[in-house]
Amino acid sequence: MADLYVVLVTSSRTWDDADAIRNAFAPIIAEREPDNVTVRHGRARGGDMLADRIARQLGAHVEQRPADWNVCASPRCTPSHRKRREDGSTYCPAAGLVWDAQMVNDGSDMCLAFIDPCADPRCRKKEPHGSHGATTTACMAEEAGIPVRPFPKGADEWLYYVGDPFGWLTALPSHHHPQKDRNHHG
Question: Distance of CA 102 to CAs 2, 55, 130, Å?
């Protein structure tokens, strides 16, 4: 039996491109064989649940690691730190990133990052950028030495502004290189 190959998935909650996920999974699962691949994700709506369904369809194992939003993720959490839901209950806004960090710390052979541009109307950043949770998790994985393969939507709109700190633009097809294109106009 071959060693188990773990693929960490991080994605935006707005991610809806099933073909991108299928196209990313198919060669990995075919090369390693389905019984030898585990897809790990945080069970958030959007890309995580699409990845779950597609991985199962392709025969891979799936490991769901949902955050426990009801438990404070840090001893520094205070009642005022908690956010209120529409139904009146509260949750710890840091729980997602704490659980994402745990998934990264548990190790993976690769991280696939399906990232939409940030669409949070409360976000204070002025420049275009990727959704916060997925982008942060991808950066944590990169810093932990896990190879990250990004699939950013809107690369022309937001990667240009945030730069290419992890060399992600080099992983995109040439028609998605806004910095390179701009440098050749002059």
Answer: 25, 21, 21
